Amino acid sequence: MTAALPARPGVVDRWHHVVEHRDLAALAALDALIADDAVFSSPAVFTPQEGKAKVLAYLGAALTVFDGNGFHYVEEWYGDRSAVLEFATELDGIHVNGIDLFHWNDRDQITSFKVMVRPVKGLQALIPLMAAQLSQS
Given this structure, which CATH class describes domain 10-136? Predict the structure, then answer.
């Protein structure tokens, strides 16, 4: 007998909506999804990026960089107030694999968002693309 998969949390559903649509309504949904005191941990920047504005800037840049590159989630795991989403994409001909790890509060707002990327060549391809997007915000 196969065990039933846990139901996808509402926060994760809302994140998927943002990733899949990337329109003005999705950006408004992203703003509502991120807590004011949220923290973003980048695979390339040592210092955590604190505050809603910085988290929105990094997530918005990532959504732009990955748009049209075959970005998709491969698997997902859920905790009580956390999720790990494994993704795959391609950047400049390099297969990139990684995870988004996030936690949320009792208001279903993301409080921390950590990204890990492999292989190193994938991260090296990602860094200048993210820097270009972040310099525009």
Answer: alpha beta
